[in-house]
Design brief:
single chain; alpha/beta; Aspartate Aminotransferase, domain 1; Aspartate Aminotransferase, domain 2; 2 domains; 4-stranded antiparallel β-sheet; 14 helices; 14% strand
């Protein structure tokens, strides 16, 4: 099946073509935070040892550099406060991929036949919707609230599918459960447990998997951590955990990884072998050094400090700018890179809307929220995803002002109240 062009392509082109544009659209990483000196030192360390250099510059294995896979298991389990044995995990359950995006394709190729069903949150990561459509998958959605995917609604959907004789077509439930792209919200612990219970209960004739996309997990700026769904899957049977080094370190290294049920590893590697015979081996050797010497962990802490400051500046500026706007709501994410804006009913934010046109005139860009919903289902047209990842703090203040001017010129109603509706955390 033909793959459609992702909606984000238009917005990335606009950002490249108009240098005066402040882009809040593409989820890019702040280049000023890149650990340039640390990566250079790691590269010199690898290349300074002839044996290590030859190993790093040679082809690697399809599954990934074994010492790196060992460290990945240790890192993930340390985040969850468990030993690998507690979740039946080892380096044999890890597959290193060319970014986490490759894993989304690989799993689809292994698991899905045309007409199979995948259930996602609404709204959700829209690039994955395109992958599913290209594979001929039927995508159903479950709404979210401040605690993430509403698992009671998922229970009702699964029960309806069972009554209709379609439960056996359900292959996967997809969730971005930490600081979600696009809303910035996270799945609560109670719902993580309920989600896993539902998957176990409804895996009657076939296994239903959870794809836990935790790309933003390490970018936490406040609040207590919650365990991954993977850590709750004690028999390592129902959860594929996908993570990446792109967001917490450097996307140019283009390295992601997954921890998955052991019986999936072989099929995934067979498809991956057809893709590339293994992801970038040199990058994996660099990452192994950065994890071994503690540089990775220290960098993540610095990065969280930088993004926390940007989030605070941006949310404050948005609150000030929209203080007189009627019915506007925002999320104040506890991590990640996204603020979700919800305008009052009747104020359109989609393609061709007066607001988007006004934003382009003002020199600011966002992703219309309608792209974050599956085609064919309900698609609210009054929402927007705002990414604070790449803009500077001064640019974020100016972006908020431009959004405010655009909203007023597009007719956003005003209130006499001094403050906007309270932000959701």
């Amino acid at each position: 099946m033909q793959t459609a062009e992702p909606p984000i392509s238009y917005f990335m082109e606009q950002a490249v073509e108009n240098r005066d544009l402040i882009s809040l659209a593409a989820g890019l990483v702040d280049g000023d935070t890149f650990p340039v000196a640390e990566v250079r030192a790691a590269a010199e360390e690898v290349l300074g040892n002839p044996d290590a250099a030859r190993a790093a510059l040679q082809y690697g294995t399809t599954q990934g550099h074994a010492p790196l896979r060992d460290k990945i298991v240790a890192k993930v389990c340390q985040l969850d406060g468990i030993a690998p044995a507690d979740a039946h995990l080892s380096a044999d359950d890890v597959v290193v991929t060319t970014g986490s995006q490759q894993l989304l394709y690989l799993l689809g190729e292994v698991l899905f036949d045309p007409g199979d069903i995948v259930i996602t949150e609404a709204p959700s990561y829209f690039v994955y919707h395109g992958i599913l459509a290209s594979l001929g998958v039927r995508t159903l959605t479950v709404p979210m609230d401040g605690d993430g995917l509403i698992t009671d609604a998922l229970d009702e959907l699964l029960a309806r599918l069972e009554s209709a004789g379609e439960l056996e077509r359900v292959r996967l439930i997809y969730t971005v459960d930490y600081f979600q792209n696009p809303t910035g919200l996270s799945l609560s612990r109670r719902r993580r447990e309920h989600l896993l219970d539902l998957v176990r209960r409804y895996s009657r004739r076939q296994r239903i998997l959870i794809l836990e996309d935790a790309a933003y997990r390490e970018l936490r700026y406040e609040g207590d951590d919650v365990p991954s769904i993977k850590s709750l899957d004690a028999d390592n049977r129902h959860v594929v955990l996908a993570m990446t080094f792109s967001k917490p370190l450097a996307p140019g290294l283009k390295t992601g990884y997954a921890l998955m049920p052991r019986d999936l590893v072989g099929p995934v590697l067979r498809f991956k072998g057809n893709h590339d015979f293994g992801s970038n081996n040199f990058a994996q050797h660099l990452l192994d050094r950065l994890l071994a010497n503690g540089i990775y962990e220290r960098h993540v802490r610095r990065l969280c400090d930088a993004y926390r400051a940007k989030r605070d500046v941006f949310v404050t500026a948005l609150r000030d700018e929209f203080s007189a706007a009627s019915g506007v709501r925002l999320t104040r994410p506890k991590g990640g890179m996204y603020v979700w804006l919800e305008a009052p009913e009747g104020f359109e934010t989609g393609m061709g809307s007066p607001f988007l046109k006004a934003c382009l005139r003002e020199g600011v860009l966002y992703v219309p929220g309608e792209f974050c919903y599956v085609e064919g289902g309900p698609r609210p047209t009054t929402q927007a995803r705002l990414c604070f990842g790449v803009a500077t703090t001064d640019q974020l203040r100016e972006a908020a002002r431009r959004l405010g001017r655009a909203a007023r010129s597009a007719g956003l109603p005003r209130l006499s109240l001094p403050r906007m509706a309270r932000c959701r955390g």
